[in-house]
Amino acid sequence: MLVGKTLRDRYKIHQSLGSGGFGDTYLARDLEFPKDSFCVVKHLKPKDSKPDILIVAKKLFDREAQFLYRLGQHDRIPTLYAHFEEWGEFYLVQEFVEGHDLTEEIIAGQSWSEEKTIHFLQEILEVLSIVHQENAIHRDIKPSNLRRRKRDGKLVLIDFGAVKEISSLTVDSDGQTSATIGIGSPGYMPNEQSNGKPKLASDIYAVGTIAIQALTGVKPNQLEEDLNTGELLWRHLVPQLGDRTANFLSKMVRNHFKDRYPNASQALRALLTPIESQDTLASTATTLQATNLNESLPPKASLATIILGSTTAVAIAIAGLATLKILVSPSLSSIYQELETALAAQRWQEADLQTNKIMLRVAQREDEGWLDSRSIKNFPCEDFYIIDRLWLKYSNGQFGFSVQKPIYLETGNQLGEYNPIAYRSFGDRVGWRENGYWKSHNDLGFDLLMPKGHLPRWGPFNDLGDWEESIILKRCYS
Length: 478
Description:
This protein is an alpha+beta fold. The chain contains 15 helices and 15 strands. The strands form five sheets. A six-stranded antiparallel β-sheet has the order 1-2-3-4-6-5, with helices on one face.
């Protein structure tokens, strides 16, 4: 036990947080920061101390550390502060997430509502999408590795399983190094993972089993299986569950990985996709054209502009967007494609930054990094419409400039004018302010759980004030 010791003259071990076959976890103080600066130290010890093992362990440790450094840039994955080796043992120093894990929320014998379960699925799939975009597999998703952060109530994904391989390395009789213990937890780990061949879809299985556990109050390893197919039998435990949710969960936990959603992004997209089929969407778009709605739009405007009308128009516009193609000049096609790719994958932070990049490119202000009065007044409405259309399409109407406009007006603002009190009210409504303070870009919430109109953040206007986008709104949407 390391309690009371100080590692590298900096990390003073305060108390044990847990111990297992893969190593020990401690709460520590970082002595280079204020008194209350806590962090988490993970101590990993290879079971075999042979030199060959340590060489492989060191390479694996460095590789996984670099992966965690990258992922830790995401708000809902703990930041990795440091990694080091001492005397053949390995240490990770990570952000301490104050809060509780999901074992305190998912109680045996108690059932979550369908709405609460869907909310959970959206939360975890948004985070897991970031992991899968790196083509990485978590491998140990279970309630104890999902923490509810105290400061904002959001789920944080912790304790990646790949790091645990270091503790289980051994050398066989042929001199081959391998992990002797399967990484994962019984009940949450599908067959292919138990056999040492995990896939991205293995994480999907784990998330599905947690959701089913929450709905039924029964742990996954206590559920019966179909003797012929190996499929989990759980649907009869929640007969009131809607068919759409039931079918979604059943696909997540199919016995064979090829029958599941292949990754978190596709699962999230399926969860958020409206019930209407593509045929219905196409029919809606045809109806819009037949009624000549486009004739009432500004010249060269996109269908997205009708969103400025009623709530019904919002739904119609979104349905139509699913069938429309984005047409841009060849010089800008690649950068718009990057925006669409980010939005389609639900990478909202990347899409937000890409939006700023496009606006600066269009205005030829990339070197300056902000839009001046002249470029704001002359910004092409066509490009503004395209950006808006893409945000509307992939957020199902949750985000976009034209979603922000009615909120801007409802909070007492006038287009093209600046009222600091009304503008603060707007910031409160769309979640750009918290406890009376404006959030920095990195403190925004980059997921669909945020308030309507939260994204895109008006970024390139920082010399004049964010309200200057209202000048473009006035020109293009009045």
